[in-house]
Write a structure and sequence with these properties.
With 367 residues, the protein is of the alpha+beta class. α2 runs antiparallel to α3. The protein is built from 4 helices and 20 strands.
Length: 367
């Protein structure tokens, strides 16, 4: 009995060793791989890059006062549309006391001279009418009277200018009324009633009363990396995507690329500007952040395959053309490639329309 059990144990041990060797041999055998089959077809291929930036008006005009003073009234607010010449604010002049005193003194002297010349004129006019004095003498007195009247008017206008900034003759065109110099939309009114303002001159930029721009003439202003700036050229088309305006792409055309780069965070960036074709159904606000999708190159209706089908060796490119689908058999074939968009790649030589090539390996999911 013991001998039978010993023989049975040896047999089982032998079967286990044989099964182990068979299992390891099967595991060491290479598994047959299956690949996706891709077909050469005609596609449009575009090579693109993205630039970040924001939307700005082409011309933003800063409205500044022509005299210093205090804001007495503000007639417009941000968002309103104005025409050139519309009044935005009114300035109350704070007179200089020295100038005011001098202007008041000039009026007093002019008034004394005018009163005296009026008295002389009335007296000599009666004498002339009575033929007591000659016409020549009367005309001299009359001229002096008119000169003194004109000096009084000029002195009074000067006093009014010093005191209020307005004269009777020029009240309509007074510098105390700040007017828009262009037509457009008011972007900002940074002043309030009671604020002091300074006129623009050679030594001071002056206080900004308002900024005005035409929101129908907008630019995308962004920056692009030095590695791609050489691929840009004026007139290139692009699409602008604005984060605040969902599902809306705005066409634009490149107008300007800066000849000088600026270093930011260790990278050299170049400024670029593109004219936007403003939509009529969406209001685009100045200052929106945006991305420009720039079409660097384009091929319409060219023979192409997925770029993952291409393999490279040194300076050569090749694919594995399908010889047989079941079972799968392939042959290596050299090709000449062209433009790529990162998904599809143009085939210039080596393949024809509807030719089939090996794609990515099909990975079976483990159960």
């Amino acid at each position: 009995m013991k001998k039978v059990l010993k023989i049975a144990g040896l047999v089982l041990l032998g079967l286990l060793v044989i099964w182990t060797f068979v299992f390891l041999w099967q595991k060491s055998r290479p598994k047959a791989k299956n690949y996706q089959i891709e077909t050469a077809a005609m596609h449009k291929i575009e090579k693109r890059t993205v630039a970040t930036g924001k939307v700005q008006p082409r011309n933003e005009i800063l409205i500044k006062p022509q005299m210093s003073g205090i804001i007495a009234e503000v007639y417009k607010e941000a968002g309103e549309i104005v025409q050139a010449g519309d009044i935005i604010a009114k300035i109350q002049v704070i007179p200089d006391m020295v100038n005011l005193s001098g202007a008041e003194s000039r009026v007093s002297r002019a008034q004394l001279a005018a009163d005296q010349s009026r008295s002389n004129y009335e007296r000599d006019r009666k004498l002339y009418e009575s033929n007591v004095i000659s016409r020549e003498e009367f005309e001299k007195v009359q001229l002096q009277y008119k000169n003194d009247q004109e000096e009084l008017r000029a002195a009074s206008d000067n006093l009014s200018l010093v005191r209020t900034g307005i004269t009777k003759s020029s009240a309509k065109y007074s510098n105390t009324l700040v007017r828009s110099t262009v037509s457009g939309t008011i972007l900002d009114v940074p002043i309030k009633v009671g604020n002091s303002v300074i006129q623009s001159n050679n030594f001071n930029d002056g206080t900004t009363i308002a900024s005005v721009a035409d929101l129908n003439d907008m630019l995308f202003v962004g920056k692009i990396d030095e590695t791609e700036v050489g691929k840009l050229s004026v007139g290139m088309p692009m699409e602008i995507t604005i984060g605040a305006v969902q599902d809306k792409k705005i066409s634009a055309k490149l107008e300007y690329v800066s000849p000088k780069g600026i270093e930011e965070s260790g990278a050299i960036l170049f400024e670029m500007k593109a004219a936007m074709e403003m939509p009529t159904d969406v209001f685009i606000r100045a200052g929106y952040s945006a991305n420009a999708d720039i079409i660097l190159d384009r091929r319409d209706s060219v023979l192409s395959i997925p770029e993952s089908c291409i393999e490279f060796s040194n300076d050569s490119a090749f694919v594995y053309a399908v010889k047989n689908e079941k079972p799968q058999e392939f042959e290596r074939k050299n090709v000449k490639v062209g433009l790529s968009d990162g998904i599809n790649i143009e085939i210039v030589e080596g393949l024809k329309l509807n030719d089939k090539v090996r794609g990515n390996e099909i990975i079976e999911k483990k159960k």
